[in-house]
Amino acid sequence: MRLYGGSTQLLLCLTLTTIILTESTQPPFACDSSNPATKSYPFCKLTSPISTRVKDLVSRLTLDEKISQLVNTAPAIPRLGIPAYEWWSEALHGVSNTGFGIFFNSTIKSATSFPQVILTAASFDARLWYQIGQAIGLEARAVYNQGQANGMTFWAPNINVFRDPRWGRGQETPGEDPLVSGKYAISYVRGVQGDTFEGGGIKDGHLQASACCKHFTAYDLDNWNNVSRFGYDAKVTKQDLADTYQPSFQSCIQEAKASGIMCAYNRVNGLPNCADQNLLSNIARKQWGFQGYIASDCDAVSIIYEVQKYAKTPEDAVSEVLKAGMDVNCGFYLNNHTKSAIQKKKLLESDIDRALTNLFTMRMRLGLFNGDPASLPYGSIGPDQVCSKQHQDLALEAARTGIVLLKNSANLLPLKKTISSLAVIGPNANSARTLVGNYAGPPCKSIDPLKALQRYVNNTQFHKGCNFVNCTSASIGEAVEVAKKADYVVLIMGLDQGEERENFDRVDLVLPGQQQSLITAVAKAAKKPVVLVMICGGPVDVSFAKSDPKIGGMLWGGYPGESGGVAIAEIIFGDHNPVLPSCSSLRLPLQSWGLRESRIFDPSASSEQQWPIAGCPISFLFTLHVCVEWRIAIHASQPSHLAIWETGLALAYKAYDLTFAGGKLPMTWYPKEFTKIPMTDMRMRPQPSSGYPGRTYRFYTGPTVFRFGYGLSYSNYTYNFTSVTQTKLFLTQISSTNATFQNSDSVHYTPVMDTDTEPCEKAKFLAKVEIQNHGEMDGKHAVLLFVKQNIDQNEHGIENGKPLMQLVGFESVKTIAGKRVEVEFVVSPCEHFRTANEDGLMVIEEGSYYLAVGDQQYQVSVLHEDKSLNDLKSNDCGLRFSFGVLLFGFQIYVLLYILV
Any transmembrane segments, and where (predicted)? Predict the structure, then answer.
């Protein structure tokens, strides 16, 4: 986000908003039933459809009032009892005050800061993503109910594909895979807006909060080698648009039912996104059925004239975006130039009315025109929902399940808690601010990795090694001396927002400054192999650490949020996990029932580590008096595990389990040589003839440091396909018209643009995969199912544009040590087997497809047509012909008999 126009105006509006929010605890709303001057307006009649109410409201506005509502900071209209509204609020990974719609004060001081999205995505747990969205939506509504919000429209999630590893905003995204980005959008948006996990649960269209998918479209460059997002023209093929850049937005609109989308700064093939009528009105609204509002990124309208020179005048810029289908401008350009655009006949008032209809419809769907919100469905959500223990536990769980184990030589990790001394070294070790990444509001609480590690080892020595993450100067000698004295060493290095952020892309993929020299020197001097923790959003070439035997363990922690320091320490030491209980048979006398107890007490932990039982209904609590006191909970969520014998013995949950990193990388980690490729090259497909290797795991043909989906575990897993219900498909059966075609290589294909047709539904089949945990530890495990096509790997075959492989589905499953668990995937050939041809048409080609999980593969054949069916038809025709001949002969015989 950026605002350079009208800065004085903006500061004044922000100041006034701050004053209002500081002095009042009453949330702003319209249609106050106690106000006789406004309650009789038809737009306040709650029994009327929203469309009728909005039409009445817009008809009452003067032209100046209408224009004033087209910007993010929309002023009040006192004569109609309409309060001011701020469209710009942020909630990328927690409710934030980086926009102008949220204000924290002494009542609600902060909000839960979840891990940055790139790490959350590494869990490959769609239900976890939904729960995070739910928590953010609840906290957002609680802040509004307390009178600390002037808007309920949140400009998140960011679902652009993480195409290039240098992109400063890659940390905000779910990674490089379009399917993952789409599934993340579905889960997050449904959670925030108050929908069910499965969708379709929003009653009467009323929203808990509004989510906005951004940045539409093909936006993934901010500021690289003096190429700015404001002037950048992304040259994108129809093929790449169809199967890489657009699918996540289609999922966001069609499945998540997002109530907002944001058009991006950049141009695509010469046309500014916010002025692209085909993109906004035809594709988003007509083809995909979008029914929400469309916002511009901040100043994205002004740059159409001032930077891109696409429009000849400011009035032309305003006219272009409103006619294209944009509704609200983040900035003041529409406020300043719309009236003159109408006066110069470049714009009609009806174009403004169209935009206002979408904007006021959204505010009504949020319940902001329904009178006092205290009496409305979301009105009872109070400040106790913000920073609740349940949400803080969820933030910790998200960090735990996202952190990726990259290396574990000789099973160095987890460290034993009995070690006598520990050295912690690195500029990210004692920085709680770095953990939360960008677009973060003030967290509920935050413990940096150093403090979390000190809880495990009293004799912990710390040295930053570098004063700052850029590490332009380093005290390598001093850090080495600290390392020499310790039994074990943990290095916490990486990047921060000074190295990667909005409006700042990297120019290389190596650690900044002298970090690599510091790591190598410390590892060489240490008594035992060291543990390296990488705090960063984008990938870094750590090939040196991967091959160094003195670096025994390596973790990628992303930006793990307010609980990230605790999660890192827990994983390093394999500590107990009170959130993920495993079932254990405990024979305990039921003597003393502590029904008021709400905590599980770990006698080995400090008081700060005594965790409440969150998110689980408790049916019984009892106390067992032994040498120390243990309080153990029996969970009513699984009453089948509860049994009471005559002797007074019960089966209870053991509330402790060992924690280990279960995440998998949601993006490819490239070698440093990848930076020879210009970041401005938007092509996804490789071109061997020119040496271009392609991008992302779906097309990249070069070497990697770590591949997409890579992640180790403290347990070993094996996979096995136990059942695949379909092994042969026919193009003629998949096609809704039974039509097939041939491409230039004489390969048959059928177009599949819509995946919800009856033939596509019938073509779906199940693939069941068995996972066995061969380790000694329980834990979550992400299972990724891919599909590979039998591609000719020569130059011609690769340039044909087919993905090397692509993700079909993923599940995060709870595994028990030594046990097997089965996962069921629904495979939709129309969705998972299709690729884009050069014309941007989604097609399925005949050939061999291989479902792949781990090292296991299962072949599914797609054939042109069912020849046996054709044979049957031929035989049927033959039989009918023979019968006809016999019948004709019989008729001749009868005729002759009569004549004779």
Answer: 879-899
Question: CA 31, CA 81: separation in Å to the nearest integer?
Answer: 7
Beta-carbon count within 10 A of 410 CB = 10
Give the catalytic positions in this structure: 297
Residues spanned by the domain of 856 = 715-865
Question: Could you tell me if 90 and 154 are in contact, meaning their C-beta atoms sit under 8 angstroms apart?
Answer: yes
Q: How many domains does the chain have?
A: 5
Cα separation, 856 vs 851, in Å, equals 8
Assigned token pair, 454: 């000190």
The 10s digit of each residue's pLDDT in 762-820 is: 999 999 999 999 998 888 999 999 999 976 554 445 557 899 999 999 999 999 999 99
**Are 735 and 759 within 8 A, CB to CB?**
yes
pTM: 0.88
Same domain, 612 and 648: yes
Going by C-alpha positions, the residue among 615, 618, 557 that lies closest to residue 134 is: 615
Helix residue spans in 164-203 (DSSP H): 178-193
The Cα–Cα gap between 316 and 261 comes to: 23
CA–CA distance, 642 with 635 (Å, rounded to integer): 8
Residue 691 within a domain: no
Position 674 in a domain: no
Q: Would 792 be classed as within a structural domain? A: yes
Kind of pairing between the strands at 260-263 and 210-216: parallel
Q: Which amino acid is at 760?
A: C
The whole-angstrom separation of Cα 112 and Cα 614 is 15
Phi, psi for 360 (deg, rounded to 5): -75, -30
Cα angle 85, 131, 285 (rounded to 5 degrees) comes to 50
Residue whose token pair is 């770590």: 706
For residue 882, pLDDT beyond 90: no
Residue with structure tokens 């120019």?
Answer: 507
440 sits in the region (left: phi over 0; alpha: psi -120 to 50; else beta) called beta
Over residues 375-412, the pLDDT tens digits come to 999 999 999 999 999 999 999 999 999 999 999 999 99
Please tell me the distance from the alpha carbon of residue 281 to that of residue 346, in angstroms, as a whole number: 19
Q: What is the pLDDT averaged over residues 441-454?
A: 98
